[in-house]
Amino acid sequence: MGSTSARLFARVTAAPAVALSAWLLVAFPLLVAGALSPLTGALLGIPAVAAGMLGVFRLVPALPAEQGRLPWWPFALTAAIAAAFAAVQLGYHSEILVIRRDPASYAQFTSWIAQHGSLPIPQQRHLIAGDDPALHYGSLAYYQVGEVIWPQFLAGAPLVYTVGHWLGGITGMLVTPPIIGGLGVLTFGGLTARLVGPRWAPAGALLLAVCQTQQWISRSTYSEPVAQVLLLGALALAFDALTRRVGSGGGWSRWHTLAGAAGLVFGLGLVVRITALRDLLPLVAFGGLLLLARRGQAAPLLGGLAVGTGYGAVAGYRLSRPYLEHLSASLIPLLWISAAVVAGVAAAVALLWRRGLPRGDRPAWLPAAAALAVLAVMAALALRPLFYTDLGHGDQATADFIGQVQEIEDLHVNPDRTYYEMSLYWVGWYVGLGTVLLGTFGAAVIVRRIMLGRAPQWVLPAMVLSWTVVTTLLRPAITPDHPWASRRLIVLVLPAFILFAMWFTAWLAHRLGTEPQVRPRLRRAMAAAAAALGVAVMLVPTAITAAGVMTYRSDVGSVAAVRKLCRAVPPDASVLMVDGVYGGYMQLVRGMCGVPTAALVSSRPERDTARIIEEIRERGRTPVLAASEPRHIMPHVPPDTPLRHPFAVNTEQDPSTLMQPPSGAWIFDGDVWIAVLR
User: Fold this and answer.
1) Residue 419 backbone class (left: φ over 0; alpha: ψ -120 to 50; beta: rest)
2) In whole angstroms, what is the distance from residue 67 CA to residue 25 CA?
3) Strand order in the sheet with 148-151
4) What pTM was computed for the model?
5) What pLDDT score does 1 carry?
6) 409 and 522, same structural domain?
7) Which of 203, 344, 355, 586 could, after both became Cys, cross-link 139 (CB 3.0–4.6 A)?
8) Strands of 622-627's sheet, edge to edge?
9) Looking at the structure, do residues 301 and 376 belong to the same domain, yes or no?
């Protein structure tokens, strides 16, 4: 029975990443070809996911170390925690459809490809007023390029949420992220079981599930839940692939297949988030180590990574080029760094090929020095606010917003401040100071053990997680209000601290439980006390902070308002937005209501609006004017024209804080007035 539970635990927790990857492998080419639909998705996607699941249950080995004697409760409890997490987030899921920030951008992206199956988005200017210079077709997160529109972000997360849209429309799309978030908790439980021990997996899953940021990102259509499942799942698959030593010679085996799958899943993270490129750099170095060690898994791991990265390159440069051009100031240096890493690893492998893998315990002081280096880096990050204040957002709009939040919070107004020097404290907000300290000590001990050759299973996780933690905390590269900024932490940074802290707690409990100078009964009591105290130190502050998102649902009422708005707009309408309402609503009306939409950008609005209305009528369509307030429509219509207010939402939205974790909601007022000119 124990062996069965060990196999099931390993395979079920590897399945989410494989299922998402299998879907992306077939859905992304369909989108590129303009052939994505429920029919093609089902015909190719169902067999692909089924094949992936068959591979998981045939190839993934049982959890190590406890084969034959693992009870059922660790797996059952981990799965129950993941299911409970998903259920709670389903109850609190948001309805963010009006674009202010990323969730609605992804929601509108999803809605478009779910209905149309292709990109780019046509402007349909011939159904409004042709090339009239007073018209603009772009909006927040949607770039006007020539006669088409490109969405801002990468297609990975929308392709996953598209399945929910096909199954349940707008609501189906909005309840998909909680399910993916629950799969993230399950996947993390599986990674904890592999690296710390199966009996510690429920505690690890619980800590991540309680974390405020994990709950928050799982309630809306963010990309992070999908990226988290892929990257944590890839680490789990890589662990499985390397459990058996396979030489560079010989035939193909299950370990080669698992290594290729791990590399592929890692690479597909780039289809979801462009910043995954930075997270993947340690994998290249690790591949070099495997080559030097003459491990047969090296070539399939790097080959899978190349294929997944190729998908990501097409996703970026074929479907999101305007977005990459917007990020060019940071992306181009990252591409050069990536090229340098690849070239450097290749040169190092060639140089050391005859000598083989260098030893980490020579000279003898090196393992201790590496551990001290971990402590020194974390100490520097902790002390950074005392001697450094980071300034400069790169754009005035962000600075203006930060200045407004500073005024609301009664802080010293310094709009240029990025608060990046506070990044380690952000981690402490969301998982507690105890987790930060235990995680730091855990990372130091793990690095020392790796250098001594005692923890080979930790080499890749430590490389990926440590690199991501340090580079992210040094420069989060995000607007620093919370909970928004915590998005940068949830994919790998917060899981890394939890994982290192869980390992240190387990290591300490084991040391106390095997102390030969203490009586057996006292040893067991000491070990149990250390385990319970360690988990409590991590869980209690995490739960206290999490209360801040348990009091509201964001943008509730938006789904009903969208349906009412779309019913109010005639099917043959061409919509002209005459004020700033277009920023958040243009793609909503174009994509969800299915009518051509443009914005008025004119220094003489009354004359230009009258001309555009007539041009719409000449095309046999019904002009509809839209604005955020009726006073912006009235100058353009006859006095007896009825004005309607179909989109009227007064509800709660996510807050913005700078010096403390969020603890409640702000108010969101969404209004669209229209005039139908028949």
Assistant:
1) left
2) 33
3) 121-122, 148-151, 142-145
4) 0.97
5) 42
6) yes
7) 586
8) 135-136, 597-600, 573-577, 622-627, 666-676, 644-653
9) no
Q: At residue 670, what are phi and psi to the nearest 5 degrees?
A: -120, 125
Give yes or no for residue 517 having a pLDDT over 80: no
Whether the upstream peptide bond of residue 461 has omega within 30° of 0, thus cis, is no
Amino acid at 282: P
The total number of structural domains in the chain stands at 3
Q: Are residues 490 and 532 in the same domain?
A: yes
Residue 107 has pLDDT above 70, yes or no: yes
Mapping DSSP to helix (H, G, I), strand (E, B) and coil, where does residue 670 land? strand
Calpha distance 51→72 (Å, rounded): 27
Q: Across 96-214, where does the E strand assignment appear? A: 121-122, 135-136, 142-145, 148-151
In sequence order, what DSSP letters do the residues of 561-584 get, joined into one string?
HHHHHHHHS-TTEEEEE-STTHHH
Residue 15: inside a domain? no
Tally Cβ neighbours within 10 Å of residue 655: 21
pLDDT digits (tens, 9 = 90+) for 269-281: 999 999 999 999 9
Sign of CA dihedral 474, 448, 354, 249: negative
Say which residues have a Cβ less than 8 Å from residue 310's Cβ, sequence separation at least 6.
267
Do 366 and 493 share a domain, yes or no?
yes
Residue ranges making up the domain that contains 429: 359-548
Residue 410 φ/ψ, nearest 5 degrees: 60, 40
> How far apart, in Å, are the Cα atoms of 342 and each of 525, 541, 569?
50, 41, 54
pLDDT at 67 over 60: no
* Pair type for strands 573-577 and 597-600: parallel
Is residue 274 a contact partner of residue 327, using CB atoms and an 8 Å limit? yes
pLDDT in tens, 4-15: 899 999 999 999
> Residues near 254 by Cβ (< 8 Å), separated by ≥ 6?
58, 59
**Where do we find the tokens 């500073």?**
406
- DSSP-assigned letters across all residues of 458-503: GHHHHHHHHHHHHHHHH---S---BTGGGHHHHTTHHHHHHHHHHH
Distance between CA atoms of residues 511 and 360, nearest Å:
24
Residue type, 136: H
Q: What is the pLDDT of residues 604-627, one digit of tens each?
A: 999 999 999 999 999 999 999 999
**Two structure tokens written together for 252:** 């193909």
Residues 521 and 396 reside in one and the same domain: yes
- Tell whether 306 and 366 lie within a shared domain: no
User: Does residue 466 sit in the same domain as residue 601?
Assistant: no
Q: Residue 449 falls within a domain, yes or no?
A: yes
| Strand pairing category for 573-577 and 622-627 | parallel
| Residue 388 included in any domain | yes
Tokens 């106390």 belong to 512
Q: Identify whether 75 is part of a domain.
A: no
Question: How far apart, in whole angstroms, are the C-alpha atoms of residue 221 and residue 116?
Answer: 19
